[in-house]
Amino acid sequence: MVSASKESRRIDRISELPDSLLVNILSLLPIKSAARTSVLSKRWRPLCLYLEKLQFSDRRYSGIKFTNFVDRLLLHKPPGLKMDQLGLYCGNNHCPSRVTDWIQNVVERNLKELELNFRFGKLYELIPDVYICTSLEVLRLVGDILVDPPENVRFSRLRVLEFKKIRVSSCEAVGEILLNCPVLEDLTIDDCVWLDGYCLTIFGPSMKKLSMSFRSWANEEFSLDILIFTPRLETLYIESFVSDDIFIKDNLQFLTTAYIDVKEMIEGAVPSSVFGLLKRINQVKFLDLGFETVEALNSAHNYDPTAVHQGFPLFHNLNKLCLTVSMYCGLTLLDDFLQNSPNLQSLQFPHGLVDFDESSYFSWGFSRVPECLSMHLEKVKIYEFHGTDEEMSLVRYLLEHGSALRKVLIHFSSFWEDPDQVHEVQEELLTYHRESTTCELNISF
């Protein structure tokens, strides 16, 4: 009995599993751990070559060791074997020709997803083979990469395209790429450097998500016209642009979520371009406005409040509104937003209500009780609370007229130093009358 038990323990039942199942098991391991299994026996040695999803990073490898490792798993694959996904993260100065060999090898294997993140310190020009890889569904490019597409771009299956901190030969070149992406759903353009051109056309009949940001150029004199033709768009993120440079062809009827942080070209005037942008997205359900946009609206209100009131768009579908109040911004058009958002359910101030400089003037007056406050507004969240008279007045107003309020969260600023003063403000807040009998007032520090 004992000898039989010992014999059963010697049997390697895992190695008896079929190749397909063993490859599936290896695919669940980090690539380095999966590669180590090749030393177990001859049975395991070739299995890693059949992995269809590979992620390589040189963070823990020397240059030649990393190169040999990738060579072994990519260039030695059996001919005709398909590849689903390749992720390549290189921060060291690997030979560009070797990187080209790796990319060229996988795009010929019916590749579906390619992610390249290079920190070479010099540009790597994306090879033409990538632009004609009709099997690609996801393409993500980050870092020291130059995109200069040929004329015959063919991305017939591409659903996700991401450009982050890369260099692009021209704005028009990206427009040409998008014209050859008929099923593209998700586009991200983040902090890219444009070598030529002044007009970027975002064309996407199937596009659902669009994210554009140019933070690195926020303080530079650069003008880039953005033309957006995306009738099916559901999510929009725009940051660090001038509103005058953005044109949306049609109202975005299917838009659900939007983050807008754009500045007005002429300060202190009625922001016709900001209003034009807001009117194109007025079907949105969740709206987050950054401090640049809020400040532009505030400046316009101070310049001509009547024109602002008359031109303010109606947000009939808006359920959640998030306003970022900058330290230079006092009156943030809260009255206009609430009056024109009759179905608003959630209101947030992630960076507070006012500038804590008490010498500044702030006002949170309302022309009349907004419909949303008396009917639908359920949640209010205020962060960076300083306890100024203007803040206390607004909280009192919301509590006294918020018939539908269920929860009001107030998080005190970290600038508070006197515990007794904090306690005093907290006690005063708790004494305010609440129109809603189910309203819960949460105060945190």
Automatic annotation (TrEMBL):
Highest taxon, organism lineage: Eukaryota
InterPro entries per UniProt: F-box-like_dom_sf, F-box_AtFBL13-like, F-box_dom, FBD, FBL13/AtMIF1-like, LRR_dom_sf, LRR_FXL15/At3g58940/PEG3-like
Alphabetical list of CDD domains matching this protein: F-box_AtFBL13-like
All residue ranges annotated as the F-box domain in the record: 11-64
Pfam families: F-box, FBD, LRR_At5g56370
PANTHER family per record: EMB|CAB62440.1-RELATED (PTHR31900:SF34), F-BOX/RNI SUPERFAMILY PROTEIN-RELATED (PTHR31900)
Protein name: F-box domain-containing protein
Organism of origin: Daucus carota subsp. sativus
Organism lineage string: Eukaryota, Viridiplantae, Streptophyta, Embryophyta, Tracheophyta
